[in-house]
Amino acid sequence: MKLIIGIVIVLGSVFGGYVLSHGHLAALFQPFELLIIAGGATGAFVIANPPTVIKAVLKGLPALLGGNKYNKQTYLDLLSLMYGLFAKARKEGLMALEADIDEPEQSDIFNNYPKLKKNHHLIDFICDYLRLMVGGNMNAFELQSLMDLELETHHHEAEKPSHAVTTTSDGLPGFGIVAAVMGVVITMGYISEPPEVLGSHVAAALVGTFLGILLAYGLAGPMANAMAEQADEESKLLECAKTCIVATLNGYTPQIAVEFGRKVLYSHVRPGFLELEEHIKGQKS
User: Fold this and answer.
1) How far, in Å, CA of 213 to CA of 106, rounded?
2) Most distant CA pair in the chain: distance in Å?
3) Distance of alpha carbon 281 from alpha carbon 247, whole angstroms
4) pLDDT tens track for 152-188
5) Which end of the chain is more exposed for a tag (fewer CB within 10 A), N or C?
6) CA distance 102 to 130
7) How far apart are CA 281 and CA 74, in angstroms?
8) Residues 183, 189, 190, CA angle at the centre, nearest 5°?
C-alpha cells in the first residue's frame, strides 16, 4: 500500500503540476521514447546481473506492495519461541531439544508460531546453531564468530537485488539522454518544415530526458531503497535470534537471554519488558 501511495504522489505531483501550468498531457505521450529508455535499461540490467539476482529482483519488487513483513508481533513470537526452547533445555538438558531441532515441523514449541515457521531461513538458522550447541563442543566466541560470518554472507546476498535496481536507476537518465539525442537526429530531418512541426519534434525529443529522470529518481531509485530496507529487516530478525543464542550459551537464564535479544531491536518494533513477559506467560498457559 505504501508503494502505491508513493507512486500516486510522485506521478500526481509531476503530471498535476504540468497540467496546472497549462501543459498538454498528449505531448508527453511518446511510447517509442519510453521503449528506448525502458528497453535499454532492462537489457543492461539483464547483462549486468546473474540469473539468481534477476529472479530475486522479480520476486522482491512485488513484495514491496506488502510493506513491512516484520512487526512487533513477529518479534514477540520470536523471543517467545527462543524462551520456550531455552526453558526446555534448562529444565531437561540440551539433549531434550534434539527432536525439536531435527524435525521442527513436528515440534510443539515451533508449532506455536505458525507465521515464524513459514520463514524457513530463520528456522534453519535457529535449528542449525542449536544443533551445534547440542552436538558440538564450540564455545560462545567460536559460535558467535560463525554466526557473524553467516549473517554477513546473508546480508551481502540479500542486498544484491537492491544494488542491481540502484545500478539500473543510475543508468535511466543516461538512456533518457540517448532517447533525446535520437529524437534530435530525427528532428534534423524536418529542419525545413514550419516551426510548429519542428517544435513538436523537439518537444518529443526532450520528453526522453524527462522520462529517464522521472523513472530514475521517482520510481526505480526509491524502490531500490525500499528493497534494501526489507533486506535489513530480514537481517535484524536473524541478529535477534543470534543474540539470544549467544546469551544462553554464555550461561544466562532464558529470561535474560531473550532480554539480550530484545535490546538489539529497533525501537518501533521492540516490545516492552512487561509486554514480552505477558506474551511468554500467555504462550505457557
Assistant:
1) 53
2) 92
3) 21
4) 999 999 999 999 999 999 999 999 999 999 988 988 8
5) C
6) 10
7) 16
8) 95
Contact by Cβ (8 Å): 107, 130? no
Helix ranges (H only) for the chain are: 2-20, 31-48, 51-63, 72-92, 98-102, 108-111, 114-117, 120-135, 140-188, 195-214, 221-249, 254-263, 273-284
Q: Are 165 and 57 in contact (CB under 8 A)?
A: yes
pTM equals 0.84
pLDDT digits (tens, 9 = 90+) for 12-29: 999 999 999 988 888 888
Per-residue pLDDT of 195-246, as tens digits, reads: 878 888 888 889 999 999 999 999 999 999 999 998 999 899 999 999 999 9
pLDDT tens digits, one per residue of 97-154 = 888 898 888 888 999 898 998 899 999 999 999 988 887 677 888 888 999 999 999 9
92 vs 218: CA distance, rounded Å: 57
- C-beta separation of 126 from 245 below 8 A: yes
Q: What is the mean pLDDT of the chain?
A: 90
Interior/surface letters 241-254, b for 16+ CB within 10 angstroms, e for the rest? bbbbbbbbbeebeb
